[in-house]
Amino acid sequence: MASQDSALDRYFHITARGSNISREIRGGFATFFAMSYIVVLNPLILSAADSSGDALGIERVAAATAFVAGVLTILMGAWAKHPFALATGLGVNAFVAVTVATHPGLTWPDMMGLVMLSGITMFILVVTGFRTAVFKAVPEGLKIAIVVGIGMFIALIGLVNAGFVRRVPDAAGTTVPVGLGFDGKLIGWPTLVFVFGLVLTIALLVRKVKGAILIGIIASTVLANILELTLHIGPAVAPGKPANPQGWSLVAPKLTDWNLPDLSLVGKFDLFGSFAHLGSLAAVLLAFVILLSIFFDAMGTVVGLAGEAGSIEKDGTIPNLDRVLMVDAFGAVAGGGASTSSHQIYVESGAGIAEGARTGLASIVTGVLLLIAMFVTPLVRLVPFEAVAPALVVVGFMMVSQVGKIDWKDWGIALPAFLTFILMPFTYSIANGLGAGFIAFVLIRTFQGRAREIHPLMWVVAAAFVIFFGIGPIEQLFGVK
Fold it and tell me: How far apart are CA 24 and CA 371, in angstroms?
């Protein structure tokens, strides 16, 4: 345990936040294992060639993803002093990949320039205090709903990516959108790994064993590698091969070749190239969608994780919030500048928080591990998602448990809160849930004749989300393709 008189304890406030060095280290490792899949997954999402036929390259994207994530996470820990890790944002990277694929003439450097412009705009909003002001304008009930929604979202990510819950083909229009396992049945050894990890983690938690989540991840990883070595299960999807519903969902555990990191993508962007290829209006609309997504994804994630870590003050404020938001804004700039898409605060940080992490020291541990991952990507590939999914489900439970703090008798809060936390998992987007909740809050308070209670910034944010949700008709109206 850190001495209360040590420089380390004084700088990170370890004792004051009810933690110790061993917990911070365990938390840092748990977060790393929970999010390390992005080093392998992001290159696959950004693997397509652009209109010029150029591809970013899997090895280069993997190295740049780990590098930028490591530097940003260390910065978050050392400067903002919170146990929040950053990496390429899922959702934004998919949007970037689809946009490049569906807009003739658009290149990867053009698209990454748009990501950078969104990040620069975000940075300006933080420096001017606007983004912090929006945080403070959100009613307490909605902040609780954000925590609950992210908990449900994290749990769904774990269940889906572990194959316990799967999308159901709906050709006839008669089946449900998701179901249990494959064709209503739990099949495959990877699913067994997930179930084993979940049962073990829960058992350790209820027995109050220190390091329960981390032990669960490591034990599940060992089991997964034994099964893969002996049974040769393989991935669920592989190039040139038919789908394997009994395979590993994202990463088939195996030891691959060792290569020095290739960081040649850093600096490969064209800040205003999209304006020349798409036109000013189309480029601005694309940048607006990216901006709103990263703006509110981070807002929801910070509130959720800070609430779980117990670092929200009695007056509703979060210590060093400006620094947290500044690092997050810089994540979009750095991600675009390194051709890895926008980096943002990761909900998987909740795994480390559940393990006891409360300070930035945990983030430094995670960041160092991400930097090491540049050189030892083969070791990252040893951890399949099925081994970390149990941690996400357990973290989701912990966050959803706060639902009782919402005032369900006040429909002006209860209905927006419900829409907020139900749409996050159902639309697979934190921003969508926030938008629906904010719009509903403004409308219902107005219907109740209590419009004076609405903070002016909530009107601004609600209006921005109306544009966000209506971006399709707006593009059609102006003839933007």
Answer: 18
